[in-house]
Design a protein that fits this description.
membrane, CysZ/EI24, 10 helices, elongated, Sulfate transporter CysZ, about 75% helix, transmembrane helix, two-stranded antiparallel sheet, mainly alpha
């Protein structure tokens, strides 16, 4: 007689500690994996695409965007009053600095999320092959329509990120939202985009749903850490691939433990 038993998720009181432990282990493994020549070379693809995206976005949209922002700023009473006060004090023109800053705050994140999407769709399979053969060789691939799921996930997450970023930018004027909102949206982008791609090739749809529910907190913690690292410009070069490695280790380890929980007793 064969019995299939799936252990219940850990108690609520222990979930945070277990999630934190799993996140720490994933980061340690990702650091080791990132030093491999294959993963160092993989860094170039999303970085170069993001760099090309920056050049194209600034070349195509800088002038029309700054002109539109300058026209809109002329109707903002608060900005106009502040501008008049600064000029009356013999200081500087606020709009001269404000408009370019807003334009950069719009265009740079667009190129950044493009690099992240490229990493999720095109680099993550390389990451999964690398870590899968080396550390998760016994983990069978049961995913279905992995490419389609990955592409659709990248499209909707990128769209939600762009819309959310643009529509919440006016709130940046309310302290401390200028710091909180970018961290939140990048946490959203990292978490929602990478967690699916990390397990889509190996996990069945049912397993994927269970892992995303059970380890939702851990995925968001990783996203938060990556978004904080994203505040450091030098990290932009490696972060798309490094975040993919972290999510791959965390997701595949969660899948491995999920399958180990299923015990078969033969009477």
């Amino acid at each position: 007689m064969t019995a299939l038993r799936t252990d219940s998720p850990p108690p609520e009181t222990g979930r945070f500690a277990r999630a934190a432990s799993g996140v720490g282990l994933a980061f340690k493994r990702a650091l080791v994996s990132q030093c491999h020549p294959t993963m160092l070379f993989a860094v170039l693809l999303p970085f170069l695409i993001a760099l090309v995206g920056v050049v194209l976005l600034f070349w195509l949209f800088w002038t029309p965007l700054t002109d539109w922002l300058a026209a809109q700023a002329s109707h903002w009473d608060f900005i106009n009053r502040t501008e008049e006060w600064l000029l009356a004090m013999g200081l500087f023109s606020l709009k001269i600095y404000l408009v370019p800053v807003i334009a950069v705050s719009i265009l740079l994140p667009l190129s950044g999320v493009l690099g992240l999407a490229i990493a999720a769709v095109f680099v993550m399979p390389l990451v999964l092959r690398h870590v899968g053969h080396r550390e998760y060789a016994g983990l069978g691939r049961q995913g279905k329509l992995a490419t389609s799921v990955s592409v659709w996930n990248a499209i909707w997450v990128s769209g939600a990120f762009v819309l959310g970023w643009l529509f919440t930018m006016p709130l940046w004027l309310v302290p401390p939202m200028a710091l909180v909102l970018p961290i939140f949206w990048w946490t959203f982008a990292f978490s929602r985009m990478m967690r699916v791609d990390a397990i889509v090739e190996h996990a069945s749809p049912a397993e994927r749903k269970l892992i995303l529910e059970r380890h939702n907190g851990g995925f968001w913690i990783i996203g938060l850490i990556c978004s904080l690292l994203n505040l450091l410009p030098p990290a932009w070069i490696i972060l798309p691939v490094f975040s993919a490695l972290v999510y791959a280790h965390y997701g595949l380890d969660a899948l491995q433990r999920l399958r180990q929980e299923r015990t078969i007793d033969v009477a």
